[in-house]
């Protein structure tokens, strides 16, 4: 084999291996998109198992609720924990799902790992203040699109896409809080 051919074959093999590596799984992404179409309101990159939280005030009880979710490596959405001030309308233990614990004045159902799949949420008005909490950020959905039905969708992304979005975040990705800000709000 000639030197030129060896270099070409070696170069092609190196490119093939690099592309194969870049097309491997690289994480997951959550998109919050209006149900009737349009650009996403929020796009957040996640590692499988990394939490994001929906926080809001219950419209009847007027009490805060936290719903902690994760995505698995395929992008399927799971609810992991629900935390609330007290039992109220539609709240409480579901037999066989998670464990009830107290966290200060709050009751929490932890260890749920209950699949929700992609789901639809009708964003409440100000006062309900549906917020998406992620990596030290708070995005007030009620301020962005009150009374709008949105779909929460998870999906697996390639390593190449993940690297691209690290360098060039989607315009709907909230800027992550600095480590100092995260420690101050914890």
Could you please describe the fold and organization of this structure?
With 186 residues, the protein is an alpha+beta fold. The protein has one domain (26-185). It has 4 helices and 12 strands, in the order αβββββββββββαβαα. It has helices spanning 3-22, 141-144, 159-167, 179-185; strands at residues 25-34, 42-46, 52-57, 64-71, 77-84, 99-103, 106-110, 114-115, 119-122, 131-134, 137-140, 149-158. The strands form 2 sheets. Strands 3, 4, 5, 6, 7, 8, 10 and 11 form an 8-stranded antiparallel beta sheet that branches. A 4-stranded antiparallel beta sheet has the order 2-1-12-9. It is elongated, with a radius of gyration of 21 Å. The termini are far apart. The model is unreliable at 179-186 (pLDDT under 50).
Structural class: alpha+beta
Strand content: 35-45%
Radius of gyration: 21 Å
Overall, the morphology is elongated
Domain count: 1
How helical, in percent, are the residues?
10-25%
Question: How many helix segments?
Answer: 4
